[in-house]
Amino acid sequence: METLEDARAGIAGVVLPLALPDAEEARRTLAEVLAQLDDYIIPRYKSLDAPLLAVVGGSTGAGKSTLVNALAGFPVTRAGAIRPTTRQPILLHHPHDAQWIEGKRILPNLERIRATAALSSLPAGQPGAVAGDATVSSLVLVAHEQIPQGIAVLDAPDVDSISDGNRRLAGQLLAAADLWVFVTTANRYADAVPWRLLLDAASRDITVAVVLDRVPPAAEKEVRQDLQDMLGRQGLANARLFVVHETVLDDRGMLPAGSAGELRHWLHALAADAAERSSVARRTLNGAVKAAADRLESVAVAASAQEEAARRLEHAAGEEYGEALGRIIDATKDGALLRGEVLARWQDFVGTGEFFRALEQNVGRLRDRLGAYFRGEPAPAVKVETAIETGLQAVIVDQAANAAENVDRRWRSEPAGRQLLGPDDFSAPAAGFDAKAALAIRQWQEGLMELIRTQGQGKRTQARWLSFGVNGLGAALMVVVFSMTAGLTGLEIGIAGGTAVVGQRLLEAVFGEDAVRRLAQQARRDLQEQCQRLLDTERDRFLGRLEAARPSGTDLTDHARKLRRLAAAA
Fold it and tell me: Which of 313, 385, 396, 544 is the most interior residue, by most CB within 10 Å?
């Protein structure tokens, strides 16, 4: 029971949400295995001595209801020309077996309705209390002394019913059976739908009785032999075959007495033999467990495909946004951001001509001139920051747009991705991304200024320069960060000319060479983190769709192995 209940809990937790080619079939199989565990396997393991459940099933118009009436000895279930005629399952049992039937031991999801009318007096074709308020999701219970104690007989809907609900219910009831009484006719015994179910019975090693109904006496020998040969070829050579001759029903819609006598005698004999009943129950139970294991393994393949599809989608999003981050960082290393407007504003800030020559000739004199220079020119430093913000924002937005377009294209190339994105346009950054990028850059710049303030604390000889020139020093640090390649080892002088050297010399004059190296390294890390957060938010637009429909659940293959061992040990 622990193995079965663990398997049941594990299966109930499995979700296969992605739109893969085999997903719908896998979901249906999973639901059917779960239903069989609830309806038959677990209840039967808990009570091996409970009455056998014989489900009478077959094709539309095969005569199932008429046969059930013959087994009961009175017209308990409706038969007629209108299809489908069996609108809800009717379960007949001996009154002494009520304790096993009336609760939720088997088919727990079907509501129980107790029939109370004097059924034996019903006119032909009248459902009476059996139909009552019953629906397709209910189970009508009829207790009568005519039903042998030890076997309950269930009249199921047509397996090929025009009603989807009836077909599903017929399959559910057959999966809950200890034995099948399969009804077909001399004209339809080779139909495809019944044989699919019979082959399923063979795979489950279930006890099967086949009733060949409406057989003209003159054709009995030929038809019986042909059907017997077909059963043998399909692994059902041990199935019992009963023949009901073509005949006229009486005014109550009943077969002549004795027409189904051979089948009725067999069921009564089985009910009276406790050892044989136990053998039937165990054989069917073990077959059902093995079949459930087989089906779980097939679903496990589909579950693996779901996980693999989810990983591909996740990888596509991570890869594209990861490459976008790399391209942004590359753009901040190679000096490209120092071209154009940034370079112009930096040159406005530091000046040209005599300033450069003086700086190159005597860096020491810079300390004597910086204070007055920065106090007198605060605005150009802000212009440098603004130019850097504009240039960096353009790079970030462009790379985020490329990543969104690429992920959208890659996701839509797969069925699961198309399902997750639906009609929504994900091929561009989210609304407001430009503003978010600008805000992130300003936050980075503010953090960089704080780094400079922190670096200057406690330096009495430099505090004056920091208090008046923090924006200028910040602008210089940004220029140094954007002009370095291969970490902190070189300057792209060819791009920015001598202006980048000015920024580095200026900072070294104030803080020292080692401190400048640390400041630039920290500033680059902070910038990368800001860009990473921006792109992660964009990437998560895609991953959020995936997370909301992510495949989940337990290892079905492991449960299948445990069920197979359980069946082998039983």
Answer: 396
